[in-house]
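User: Can you predict the 3D structure for this chain?
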Amino acid sequence: MCETHDHKNSGIHKKVKRRYGSAVQHGIAHQREHAMNSRRDFLKSTGLFSLGSAMMLGNVPITSILPNKFMSGLANSSCENRTLLLLRLSGGNDGLNTIIPRSNSEYYNIRPNIAIPESGLWGLDDQYGMPNFMQDLQPSWEEGKMKVIHNVGYPEANYSHFRSSDIWASSSDSDEFVDTGWIGRLMEMNFPAYTEAPPAVPPALQIGVQTNMIFNAAVGSMALSISNPTEFYQIAQSGQLYNTNNLGSAEKKQELAYVRSIANSSFRYSESIREAYNRASNDVDYNPDGLANQLRIISRLIKGNLGTKVYMVTIGGYDTHANQADQHARLMDYVAKGVKSFYEDLRVSGQAEDVLTMTFSEFGRTIFENGSQGTDHGTGGPMMVFGEDIGNGFVGEGPDIVNVDEYGDPFHSVDFRSVYGSILRDWLCVDEDIVDDVIGSEQDKIDGLVPVGEPAVGLSDTASLQGYNPSPTSGMIQIKYSILQRGNVVIQIQKENGNTLRTVMNDFREKGSHTFELDPAKFYLGNGKYKMRLMTGGRAYSRPMEIGF
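Assistant: Here is the predicted structure, written as structure tokens:
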């Protein structure tokens, strides 16, 4: 269902349609869309069906996400230390008041109350500017540390927060319903043994209790949560979240002990996070707002050499249907101040050149202001990319606010999947065939968007399965292995065809060389040819083994 509104364009009344549910005036339809999104987020932030963990640092919840498959091939390359930060502007950022078309009379005609005047902006070039409340980004632009990607979107745009967020997260077409995320698919492919033997250091971290679909793999959401800083430090100090000792033998107490033991096993890598957090410090002052607090924590983890490859932070409040001017100014001021402090902090330790930041939002806003001095749900908008050596300038064509579609929205000029693919290929050194497979289509890449890294030769392994030695006297078999990072270790005995017969070990081990004593009789393993399989750090390793020959 659509409705028609009159807007004055250069003195001429123009009728444009508005998709039903995109504006506050659509009443129940708009409320239902918001309620659906809130309910989905609530379900994703609760329950124990997911894997991973969340914890608190500096009074901000941190959700650890599964490792990504594009981490393979990063060792021994210029990509090895590179990190990607995703900065989500939740609610639909108004791109036209973020990257402003200077001296464009149409812009001022269609936005008589909320347009940013020339006196209220600083110039990116002769055609475009940014509002003065984002002036903290001006040095980044002038020093070649910021790029703007114009008018990013996708065909047949959806105006629902819920649906469009899923499209951006899943990297799908608007008529596809995909329940895995573009990063989650990478995770699953490169770490097939994550569920059985996750790594000690999470390659991705999301700040906030609610997990984003971006990180979904086929097995579902990958986040658990811890509610306060005390619990986080308890994990790091004792290796467990909940005490399982001295609970007694009563049935209910034993059930509690079991549940606590399961929860404890999910937080093995939390000590690595705390160690990195305590190895470093923040060397600049951050603005006292929620986004800055998230960025402050991430900077400290990066400086502490945690080794995480992907981070995500979120700032909400961009659904500016009414009285947009003050709210949008406040939010974008937070973004500008936060990004500036974040990179200043990283420069102190010499790590700023290894961190790339990319902003995104589920959609833009209407180019016309509404009757409440705000804007409704629109289509595309700009993305900003920040990094030390990326240069400055624009990618794509700015929005044409005269020749619009039937709903009064500009046609997008850059597909968001082209941005994803370019960053995966060039910043994180993922093979282009793998990029296309994960993104879901062969989108054109944007050459020169970010500095191209030098791909590694070979893969980065986290362990080795060295072999086995039968004992001539005891009948035991010594299985020898080494791990390069502390974590859970699983050893299985399989048939020659790869079917698993027995799991003979499932335990936590410190990094180093180890020997497992296998008693074939205990596990009912007769003479014959088998395979032994080692799983740790999300990876799996196999070698043939013979018993009784």
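The first strand starts at residue 2 and ends at 9. The longest helix spans residues 324-348.
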